[in-house]
Amino acid sequence: MNWPDRELGWLIIGTFMALGCASLVGLILRWQCGPTKTIENLNSRIVAWWFMILVFLGAVLSGPIVVVVLFGLLSLLALREFLTLTPTRLGDHRALFWAFFVVLPIQYIILGIHWYAFFSIFIPVYVYLILPIRSAAAGDVQNFLTRTAIIQWGLMICVYCLSHGPALLTMLEIPDYPTRDGKLLCYLVLICEASDVLQYVCGKLFGKHPVAPKVSPSKTWEGLIGGVTLTVGLGTALWWVTPFSPQAAAGMSLTICLAGFGGGLVMSAIKRDRGVKDWGQAIAGHGGILDRLDSFCFAAPFFFHFTRYFYSTI
Amino acid sequence: MQQISAACLRLLTGLRAEWQGCLPSAEPRVYFANHTSHLDAPAIWASLPSICRSTTRPVAAQDYWTAGPIRRFIASRVMNAILIDRQLPTARNNPVTFIRQAIEDGASVIVFPEGTRSPDGQIQEFKSGLYHLARDLPHVEFIPVYLENLNRILPKGEFIPLPIIARATFGAPLGWIASEGRHDFLNRARQSIVALMQQTLMEPLDNTPLHSAEAFANELA
């Protein structure tokens, strides 16, 4: 295990303190109002947060390889939830086999060996063209385009986009800034999840006008504006964790918030179309893995490419 | 061994059991389910609580489950399956007799009244064995089970299972109505599984028609 440098150490202490406060508030609420359904859900969400943060930090402190493996497993679980809910036909069995057992491992192996050129085009170009060939060869033409789109979309979101998180450790070279200790990934995860939580909290407290009532009645303008403002404030205040200036950190945080909000909206639209509330039951209180990762999947590629374009030397 | 196999299978298939119309019970029962995959019997068996699992015996095809040492081991040692000959149901080796004997000895059984795996996920007509079993054992609970996504995990004709999440929904027991004939009983049994299928939310792609141009125009207007 690597001992975290001072900035990462402060970030971890701050996160633990914030989560400690949340746990305390949860306990007080239960003591004051009794164990109602909302409060019990809040408390199980907080317990799940402790669990998720400990797993994530354990991986970050164990080095880049462990982070890559952790995200590989998350991709597998996310893709599994995605393909369970979005229908395919029996003729797709072989193509799905390739998606799960060939494409996904290869994407994370490329990530582990720092091969950026292939990492960035493997799924959008090669897999995009080859997997439909496999499906077509199986001979089933019914709803062909829908099925092909489902598989490609699932791979793009759950594997390609998600893999841009650990890519922050292995695919960037920033002068006078260590990327391999995972500080930038911690910053992205913190801002992205803080944005989710603060939008949820502001929405619960002040929410009145839904942004897209048909897609997600819980996403309101009040929650969006309040959550984004607070998160951008937090992201700017934490500029010392990153290679960015305070102004740039504000811009990056805003990007993460807006991409994350869009991600939540898009993934909700798929859930509504399939007639379900959550992607799964994997995390107590939160729903499925994808319910927690939806905003991250959309924010990670933006954050990675902005950082790479403006700061990285490779 | 049973515990470990069941845990592995639950991990692989992400299997969830939903007890919608009844609760798990150690009393002898007949679980009858739709059949789409060789994994069906192990899936129901693994989704039961361990106390019921040890006395529950799947009824499975002898030709498949005795081919090769691994399958034979799983069928006889792990699941304690009742293996039946699908080819020659004569009076001497009538499957119903074996199944009834197992239930009278205190076991629960898992049966697939369609007799064979459905090629397209649709529920086929039920074979009459279920009726004879119910007539012989009017006090035993017959529980409908709807299995979902097993045909996507391991469809007919494929060898490698996919890590897609499966679900087993247990419905309300089918009561025995003495005045009911064979045809009506089998119809009612089949309908109880169809009803479970219709209330689950994940529709298969085959049932979601593409928008016709006209419907699409109406929607826009």
UniProtKB/TrEMBL annotation, chain A:
The chain crosses the membrane at residues 7-29, 49-74, 95-111, 149-172, 223-242, 248-270. Keywords: Membrane, Nucleotidyltransferase, Transferase, Transmembrane, Transmembrane helix. Pfam families: CTP_transf_1. One of its GO terms (molecular function) is nucleotidyltransferase activity. The keyword Methyltransferase does not apply. Coiled coil: none annotated. One of its GO terms (cellular component) is plasma membrane. GO terms for biological process: peptidoglycan-based cell wall biogenesis. The keyword Kinase does not apply. This is Phosphatidate cytidylyltransferase. It comes from Planctopirus hydrillae.
UniProtKB/TrEMBL annotation, chain B:
The keyword Repeat does not apply. Pathway: Lipid metabolism. GO terms for biological process: phosphatidic acid biosynthetic process. GO terms for molecular function: 1-acylglycerol-3-phosphate O-acyltransferase activity. InterPro entries: Plipid/glycerol_acylTrfase. Keywords: Acyltransferase, Transferase. Residues 29-150 form the Phospholipid/glycerol acyltransferase domain. It comes from the Bacteria. Pfam families: Acyltransferase (PF01553). This is Acyl-phosphate glycerol 3-phosphate acyltransferase. It comes from Planctopirus hydrillae.
